[in-house]
Amino acid sequence: AALNRELQLGPSNAMDMAVRLPFLDRLTRISTIFVRPICCAVNSQAWQVVEQSVGGTNRQAALTGGEDSKGRSARRESTSDREEIRLIRLKKVEELKARGHEPYAQCWRRSHSALELQRIYSELANGQEASDEKDRVSVAGRVAMRRAFGKLAFLTLRDDSGAIQLYCEKGRIPEHKFEQLKALLDLGDILGASGTIKRTERGELSVYVDDFSVLTKSLLPLPDKWHGLTDIEKRYRQRYVDMIVNPDVANVFRKRAKIISRIRKQVEDRGFVEVETPVLQAAAGGAEARPFVTYHNSLQRNLYLRIATELHLKRMVVGGFERVYEIGRIFRNEGISTRHNPEFTSIELYQAYADYNDMMEMAEDLVTGCALAVQENLIINYQGIELSLERPWRRATMIELVREATGIDFTKFGDDTRAAKTAVVSLFSNVSEMESAISIVEQYESVGHILNEVFESVVEKTLIQPTFVIDYPVEVSPLAKLHRNAAGFTERFELFICGRELANAFSELTDPVDQRARLEAQVKEHNKSLVSALQRNVLDDVSEANDLSDAYEVKLDEDFLTALEYGMPPTAGMGLGIDRLVMLLTDSASIRDVIAFPVLKSQ
What we know:
Strand content: 15-25%
Oligomer: single chain
């Protein structure tokens, strides 16, 4: 009885149907266990009355979004019984057509967005109506909330800019259309409405509707507003639903668009020219990463999805473009994590007659400009950590940072690889950790590789505030120019914020002979690792299903080396990960939260 009274209450007091229906189901089960024996003991017909009250017509009304036998309007359909709801809504489509209404309209002429109306009529007083001819408006959007009772119905209409209430009153709207609104309209439908503007006594700005039209009839129910789309995988697979029910998700992608627009404006204000380079390439170069391989039928050859835009952009510099950039998709056939997606977006830019110091200044400018564009502040919060983007940012060499973290001074080792390995292993007192360290460092044959490994394992995760890590070993920087003052090192930096690499930049190597030697050494090293991995595979009798991360071919890009021989001016270049920057500035924990349709496992 109490539940039935609740179902009959108006929208200001009643529970939302999203809460009521689960409660209804639980009450039915409880009644079966506890109430039925009591009712049957008193009167054999008493249980039938209770059963009908709890599980009968009210549930059907809630399911359909229409009315029960007493004319009570249900306010929200459950997301359960999905197929049943779809069939009911298909019947509503046929009913609309039978009444002469096309449920999938050609267009709708909208005069204002929801946000524009909120701004224009911000001074309209409670209870006041703006009814002049100039105040007639036409709006359109998706029905996000529906409350109907008696001669009134209130709809919340959500468009790209925000939400506006529709105030629907029987008498102002023709009776047959008002009944259509109550019986045939569901949450998720896309609606066009026209009328004047009024603000309710409770202060809600509303379109006082005198006409409306169903523009698109939704066949599937939306997740309820209390629980939303809680399955993370489903959120990513059905991003369109995620954005409908979670406006904050859609706002992340609006901020992403603003960030990309801001980056483009800043670099073009500095005279950079945007170009497009091939996605399909004969040789995957510009980074050390496993490529995706495809086959071109007409050319009868393998091609690779690009793993970087670097080498083609440098060709543009050789060709006379002194400031050039590309914002584009990059593809790497590697692992998936909260920081990595097989396809991601980056900006790479190259400036002739500059060096890596100019790129540090550029990186600061781009990141702070984007932060001000979307956050309006240089003090930001990321996953509970306060970060200051105030300039200038710290600059420290890799050797200095490793010395601070471990006490090991790699400048003392020179080329003595054995001494470097011994010093690294001595850091660990735990036997298992020591054995792990030995297995890692033993695979390296240079001090530079060992230094880089210690940095990545120990130091990287500690770099919370913005930090430029500068002067990388030459062994791990095949495309960077040798340092003008430090032998064995290059003029290279990586930018770290919150323990994550955000940008990578060089004073670019322009010596074609040196460049060929380094790339050939890189290919040789890779092929050596490949042979070793294949040998382990044979010895361990591992099936081919166990994917070998090193089992891919690396080729020299001979055309790039030819381009360098025509002469490239002194140049600085930088790559900046746009997805990670968006993560930082939208407080998103995973890269999949900032990519609209990320790569996922098969269902």
